[in-house]
Write a structure and sequence with these properties.
The protein is mainly alpha-helical and about 280 residues long. It has a two-stranded antiparallel ribbon. Strand 4 and strand 5 form a beta hairpin. Helix 1 crosses helix 5, helix 2 packs across helix 5 and helix 3 packs antiparallel against helix 9. The N and C termini lie close together (about 5 Å). Belongs to the ABC-2 integral membrane protein family. It is found in: Cell membrane. This is ABC transporter permease. Pfam families: ABC2_membrane.
């Protein structure tokens, strides 16, 4: 039997409504619990268990980096190939995995919504945080291995590197919220998101730099927030040896708008969720 689930309850502590900070801490605990549940149901306790959170993206990132390093020239446009691949593929993996886990996330976790403290936003945040954490951990370990083997140098500007990663994490959350809500109301979105994410690879900025493109295409490709984010990451990695193009002002407001739209749709998605 299908049940359309609706909850409208205010959390109480000692009979009184929680403060704003109390509500925030409560939702943090809920997201933490969902995160551990997600790891347990996805990876279980067999073999390396939870370590697959990092192990799975490591296989992707290390595999692509090794293949590109082996078959391409050691430098492209005077920049080391391994660093180009690593600084592009880690953010790309983070984004694609976040989208993949957002599709139909509410249906597969719909029974959790019977708990009054669990919201659709908590479910998406827990899944996206898990993917972001896994990709960042994998990227760090692959970077460390490449550095020890002499294939990559330490970042030149850590501030710019962290800024680019921060923008990209927010971009992953915003697009995951959008996809999660839209896939709940349209089967077409659920079926096409894998194809769309694959077709968007040329607009991700993962395997090229904007400066390599003809000038007439550079402003157009910078309309992609992913390109701006990865250009910032590479500006942090290569410093003055690379001519990175990015627009922090544009990246800020477009990511904020995407996040607001995704948040608004997610908060309204509950009426479309059918719990089996």
């Amino acid at each position: 039997m299908s049940v359309r689930h609706q909850v409208s309850a205010s959390p109480l502590h000692n009979g009184r409504p929680l403060s704003l900070f109390g509500l925030f801490m409560l939702q943090c605990r809920v997201i933490g619990a969902l995160l551990f549940r997600e790891m347990n149901t996805r990876y279980g306790r067999e073999n390396i268990g939870f370590l697959w959170v990092i192990g799975e993206p490591i296989l992707f990132c290390a595999g692509v980096s090794i293949v590109w390093t082996a078959i391409r020239d050691s430098h492209e446009h005077n920049l080391p190939t391994t660093a180009i691949v690593l600084t592009g593929y880690v953010p790309l993996t983070m984004w694609r995995h976040s989208l993949a886990r957002a599709v139909f996330a509410f249906q597969s976790n719909g029974s959790l919504l019977f708990h009054r403290q669990v919201t659709p936003l908590d479910i998406i945040l827990a899944r996206t945080i898990l993917e972001i954490t896994g990709a960042l951990g994998a990227g760090f370990l692959v970077f460390l291995g490449a550095w020890l083997l002499g294939y990559i140098e330490p970042p030149k500007d850590y501030g710019m590197l962290y800024l680019g990663l921060g923008f990209h994490c927010l971009f992953c959350v915003a697009t995951a919220l959008l996809v999660a809500a839209l896939s709940e109301v349209s089967e077409l979105v659920e079926k096409s998101i894998g194809i769309l994410s694959y077709l968007s690879l040329p607009f991700s900025g993962a395997f090229m730099m904007v400066d390599w493109l003809p000038p007439r295409w550079q402003n157009a490709i910078l309309l992609s927030p992913s390109v701006d984010n990865i250009e910032m990451i590479r500006a942090g990695q290569f410093g003055d040896s690379a001519h990175a193009h990015y627009d922090i002002f544009y990246d800020s407001w477009i990511t904020f708008v995407l996040f607001l739209i995704g948040l608004s749709l997610t908060l309204r998605a509950r009426r479309h969720i059918v719990v089996q």
